[in-house]
């Protein structure tokens, strides 16, 4: 087993091992004890684990012990490079796609197989979500799943 | 009143008139008879009106009659230029930000004032939405509203 | 009527007048005497008219006589800017999208209304088309039309 | 034989082995049981195999057994980076070039040798293809093959 | 006096009038009742005024009454286009330069004349600023002012 | 231990070793005898050590002796690539983010954990800092820390 | 007649007038007394006229007298923006396309009509051209002309 | 000797071996039996060899037998990435620089040593080259060779 | 005479008037009382005039009185957009080309006519220039002037 | 000792060995017999050595004999990628920064230590340098050295 020199190497090992072991993201999330969305993002190198969840990840994916520290270091996040929108409100949405996009891809494929969520047969709803710690913006997006078919 | 030479000019006239008249997007949507999300996107030049809704838009915003035809022509859509993600599933999310981003900005500001929807104090949920016409991907995003404050 | 200073101005006048008069591209093509694909590309400023077809365009769209010369000058073509693929075979396909893309958009909208041709529910066929003047590559693309729906 | 750590490594192995063995894409397609277009795209890492076709690929190209899982995971698709057109209809055509471009290159070369499909000596036809599951856009492109010649 | 069609036109009018009248940003801020930093950013089109401060701006800069509404609409913010850093923490700093950069330029020039704040003869300090509403990051940057000199 | 061929390799070794040993940047700074801000920037390859501090770095991180020379060579600095603002005053701020951004990221995470410094719940102050060697621009930035939370 | 404020405006007037008058570049060159290649490049704003040839241009294209001075000022040259090759020898070729490209386009169209010079059915020869003032590189490029055809 | 996994590796081996053996491109061309221009482009990975010339290349450069197949596969061509001109006629010239640029560089250096072909002390001639298989565009470029000199 | 709304408009007026009046930059510099290098840069909108020199500029170029204030406001500087080198030392040289490039172009053309300063027939010298206010870097660049010649 | 496969590998070996041996560029230049500016540029892979100086470089830096040929092959030059100015005169200055920038960085650091040459406390002089082989442009740049200081 190799000593890990950075978080990227740990992420690659997790990705490779998950496929080799045939683990679903849902099962990883159940084992870790967080939502499938946060768990996937964290395993893909976008979030920071605490000592307890890092240890579970090391165990589940048979990682070298040197992964333990890297999983607890705040990683460099985001997957999109290129011209981002300058407006801060618009940018936060671009950032969501940048930080959570690979997670969304993994989870849609896990649930539906290869294909996309349509942006044409699509609707959305934006509403206020009252919250004592400060109201939230709640956005619901619904797009038809369109599968790739072999021909 | 000027004769409109393309859809962009119609969009600019709508945007200018809406602010001058102090109309909320919600009230425009109620008048048009569609959701505030679709109505705003359409008024910002991203969607195509039918004859009936186009006539309502012309009336509500006191537009020159030449707007009537332009509102019914499928427009050139999208607001993001720059390096888009190549993967089709990821691209559909980038496209949602490109096509609906200005709508989201307008509607969050209308409901909350100036500020952003946080991508840090944030969570998301991805689930299957059964539908006889083909199952859909339903994604719910929740982010705390953070206001800009004068200092 | 304004004297035209370049081909772009002629193109904009055609685009504006076609919508104002409610002419379909198909009817323009029948009047000009070429396919709807070539006619649309030419009217959008991508192809060169000869003296006879240029005169028809001037008449159909009530253009100033100065348009007659500009319609017969080979125009600056293409609509895509950005990183193109370096390989010559791949580039030719990128060029087809660049030169004929706006034509494809117009004609699909004319036939189907607002929406897209799916690249997911999609198949293609590549075959040799024997031709005494040199064999040709014949590619057939078939994608489901997906309409935008108001919500 | 090396254990594969991701789909890219599997794709490179297929590409290398195909040339070394002198297999045509047509023969691979016949063996897999799909069209030459889908088969080539899939072997180039753009499509997902099912268990049965993945096993055939592993056998045909003498791949390590670890390839079996990777061939069944939806891959990251697309080969074009750079400024894509923002309009969704135009983008779908750009995506076709991005996802299927390398496939088109392989199959034209397999049929005609080194050269290009002309975008100048070229014509196209766009038509409605009626289909009970939703009408389709059928586009036929025909371009003369132009060979590179040694000099 | 012209009717304003968007916030940009209002901003340009403020910028032109301020120089013509010889008003300092400090004096504008005193009149408006906010800090010179916020006031400058707001006058440069990055912040939203309330009804009271918008009225003061209209009066101070002799703007057409149509400016009143535009000054109260959340504007499109940011001045930097190009590749932004993907990491959210780094991006927030890039955003500060994008949103407040022109303000910083104005205020340094107002205080020191033409020149720059050195990034070489420079030091910085990062510390925790306890706050009952949530602790804050307090960063102090100090750079020598270097004047341009005519030669 | 490997002989270092350039400064980048030394930087990577420091980064890896710091995490493996669990050293805080604050403790490294105390050992080196400089501020945590300068020390972090220097360890991340942005500043030049003198003979004395280079020796301490080699000792603290158990580096091969060949690191000693590289740590004393002025490095290639900056971490941002892409369109920078052309104006020299604005550029110096962009440069601060480019040279010190990774340092800021490390030190905020060390003090607060994973999260960001808000650019929305934010204020700033620009003032003259008198100095006999030439007056300085002193800028104080204060932004609320917003933590990432697992969900 | 308008007073010209810069060279670009003069160039646009020449381009418009040439088409309106139906003058060939060859006839302009004969009138000016230089090659068709240099004359076209100069008329397109890439070269500097002397007093005598500038006067001829003003007369031939009925330009306002203010054009006389602008035609004798060395212009800002080049038409290509984007990533240029860094190597100086390669760059000179990129510069030839940038400075003379629009000239080549005009002259090929004038001789052959709309179409392209093939880069596939193409050959080239590079040789030393002895010259007492310093030997020259002589490159001969030959590409088949491929016409666009209406369909 | 290593088994070649793609054409790039074959190209690198040719480039390295040619310098090590001190072979001129002219001598390689004589051995292969084609022009020095085509031969250099082909050896640099831009053209496809037939069975006979591929065998000569393998022999001349002492390549592993696995190179034989790769040299006969149409390669991915072109060396320029970045914004290409959209117009098809201009693009073909950009493509010539992209595909043949490295060849031009090699052959000018072989004939003249290190330096450039001037784009300033430069002239060009464009003419029709009658040809029964279709007339050709013949362009002659002549630029003074300017040597780099040590100082 | 038009009222100036920003510095760019003033710069354009200076550029137009200088050519119309046939004034050399040298004569402008003598009139202003600064070097030809600083004067040209300032007139091209890169430097700030004081009250006295601004008044001279207004008089010399017959500008509207509103130019007086704009000439004394520190302008937005720089002419290069695109990827700048990240290293601060290298960037300063890029900035010199960005801020002073148009000045260098004007002055070389004024002295030599149309052409370039060679970067091939070129040499440079870097030396320390002792100075009680802090030593300076003195760099001398010498490149042969190469004229464009009509052909 | 490794056999060198290209010039880049030779350059990296020189850079590594120079630091390891503690050789100044000045001493290398004295040994080679050229200016420190040309010598540094050549050692950094921008210039071509002749047989005699190549042999000295191999000896001084203990390089494998295979370096001898590579040092005498004209290298691929330039270090700047991105949008270059299109105008040929401006481009030559951009090219100077691209080709000689790393040399300037090395030599300023060797003479002054870590820091920059100011582009603010800066002046320049452009003059004609008479020369029987063709007059030259002589440009003298003087900028204050600003050191980085640890804090």
From TrEMBL, chains A, B, C, D, E, F, G, H, I, J:
The keyword Lyase applies. Catalyzes the reaction of cyanate with bicarbonate to produce ammonia and carbon dioxide. Belongs to the cyanase family. This is Cyanate hydratase. Its EC number is 4.2.1.104. It holds the Pfam family CYNS_N. SMART domains: Cyanate_lyase (SM01116). Residues 79-151 form the Cyanate lyase C-terminal domain. It comes from Acetobacter pasteurianus (Acetobacter turbidans). One of its GO terms (molecular function) is cyanate hydratase activity. Keywords: Lyase. CDD domains: Cyanase_C. It comes from the Bacteria. HAMAP family: Cyanate_hydrat. It catalyses: cyanate + hydrogencarbonate + 3 H(+) = NH4(+) + 2 CO2. The active site is at residues 92, 95, 118.
């Amino acid at each position: 087993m190799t000593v890990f020199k950075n978080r990227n190497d740990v992420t690659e090992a997790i990705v490779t091992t998950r496929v080799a072991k045939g683990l679903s993201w849902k099962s990883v999330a159940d084992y870790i004890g967080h939502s499938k969305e946060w768990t996937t993002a964290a395993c893909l190198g976008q979030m920071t684990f605490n000592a307890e969840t890092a240890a579970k990840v090391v165990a589940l994916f048979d990682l070298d012990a040197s992964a333990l520290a890297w999983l607890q270091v705040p990683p460099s996040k985001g997957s999109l490079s290129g011209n981002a929108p300058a407006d801060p409100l618009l940018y936060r949405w671009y950032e969501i796609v940048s930080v959570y996009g690979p997670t969304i891809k993994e989870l849609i494929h896990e649930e539906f197989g290869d294909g996309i969520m349509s942006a044409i047969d699509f609707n959305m709803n934006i509403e206020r979500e009252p919250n004592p710690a400060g109201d939230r913006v709640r956005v619901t997006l619904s797009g038809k799943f369109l599968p790739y078919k072999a021909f």
